[in-house]
Q: What sequence folds into this?
């Protein structure tokens, strides 16, 4: 696994973790992108990407939760008893998710209604748990924050791309606003708003992503 | 043994810290959430009564429109919402609720002033299966109720939500694949209709 190259229990932070910061950032957001390479967290990626606005809020939620939980798990990593580390991680993740959910319900009510249960379901999002377990438990806090940001951005950008094209093709609008010329000329294809459109869009995005990045070396063996 | 005590201690401290943080967040956001819920309820009453609203009205505008147009009147045990314009009653709404397939369903039912037919219906709380029972919130389903008689041919109050079967003045087509949800909605609507018909007599 590529994780092992950068996972380093004795890493002493200097600069951006002795040059590991940039590598971590690239790893999370690009070479080991949680959504398009590891294909994690696709449940929410399929469900909320029918509008760009939804995708952006969901991406922001994941960045917030991922950074927060990575930081706390990393800070507590030497004190957490090994046997209950997972339930401790879930408790920390759930706290951040509910904080975000409360924030949406209080200040962004319409969005909270549209995202429905999917904000709460971030608790079970494999990306967040995976980063806490695979990265934050072995790495110092600053580097864990970088990893959280990287993976959060990796997820959010893919979501935004899918959301952009689904909304554009499905409604002929962007962020609920009509686009001059295009909206008059284009006949919206409702399929893109519905569930099958999500599968098609996600498949194409993953395909393009992999084509640009090139196949994993392990897969060629 | 020492390890066990530490584990328990750790779990207790972490759990309490998380709980404390969430309690603080919940009490901080409570007034905002309550205001949102109030606006949501007001919006549903207005939509059921078909009070004209500006497009994309803010929550403050919604609450204002609700206070200006809708009067709350106690009819026995029943709370009714009356839409009046120019001194004339245009519609009368009441809340209904009951168990759905997965969770409680709540909504508002608006009737004409003579209590003979339905003028509008909204659902503001439901957890039905998305795509099947969840379709009850769609306007395509709710609009079917507009103009529906609330009595059958013999004058007995009650409506029918069912797919197929003979057409009747008090029957709407149900949603295919959501028979349970439709049955339960029918039951709670009929209870609401019965209570208002009894109160009016």
A:
């Amino acid at each position: 696994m590529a994780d092992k190259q950068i996972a380093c229990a004795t890493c002493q932070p200097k600069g951006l973790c002795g040059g590991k910061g940039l590598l971590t950032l690239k790893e999370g957001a690009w070479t080991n992108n949680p959504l398009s390479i590891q294909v994690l967290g696709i449940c929410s990626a399929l469900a909320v990407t029918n509008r760009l606005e939804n995708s952006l809020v969901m991406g922001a939620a994941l960045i917030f939760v991922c950074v927060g939980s990575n930081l706390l798990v990393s800070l507590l990593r030497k004190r957490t008893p090994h046997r209950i580390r997972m339930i401790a991680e879930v408790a920390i993740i759930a706290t951040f998710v509910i904080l975000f959910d409360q924030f949406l319900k209080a200040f962004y009510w319409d969005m909270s209604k549209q995202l429905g249960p999917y904000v709460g379901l971030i608790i079970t999002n494999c990306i967040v748990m995976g980063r806490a377990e695979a990265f934050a438990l072995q790495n110092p806090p600053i580097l864990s924050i970088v990893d959280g940001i990287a993976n959060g951005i990796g997820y959010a950008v893919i979501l935004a791309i899918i959301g952009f094209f689904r909304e554009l093709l499905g409604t002929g609008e962007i962020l609920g606003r009509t686009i001059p010329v295009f909206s008059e000329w284009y006949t919206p294809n409702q399929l893109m708003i519905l569930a099958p459109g999500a599968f098609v869009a996600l498949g194409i995005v993953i395909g393009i992503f992999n084509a640009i990045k090139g196949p994993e070396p392990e897969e060629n063996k | 043994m020492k390890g066990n005590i530490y584990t328990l201690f750790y779990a207790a401290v972490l759990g309490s810290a998380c709980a404390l943080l969430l309690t603080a967040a919940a009490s901080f956001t409570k007034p905002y959430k309550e205001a949102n819920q109030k606006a949501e309820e007001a919006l549903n009453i207005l939509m059921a009564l078909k009070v004209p609203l500006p497009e994309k009205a803010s929550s403050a505008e919604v609450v204002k429109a609700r206070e200006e147009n809708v009067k709350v009147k106690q009819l026995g045990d029943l709370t009714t919402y009356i839409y009046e314009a120019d001194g004339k009653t245009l519609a009368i709404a009441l809340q209904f609720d009951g168990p759905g397939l997965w969770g409680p369903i709540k909504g508002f039912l608006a009737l004409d002033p003579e209590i003979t037919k339905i003028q509008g219906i909204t659902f503001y709380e439901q957890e039905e299966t998305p795509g099947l029972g969840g379709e009850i919130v769609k306007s395509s389903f709710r609009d079917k109720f507009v103009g529906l008689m609330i009595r059958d041919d013999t004058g007995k109050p009650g409506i029918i939500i069912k797919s197929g079967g003979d057409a009747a003045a008090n029957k709407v087509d149900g949603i295919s694949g959501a028979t349970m949800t439709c049955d339960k909605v029918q039951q709670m609507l009929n209870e609401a209709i019965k209570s208002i018909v009894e109160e009016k007599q």
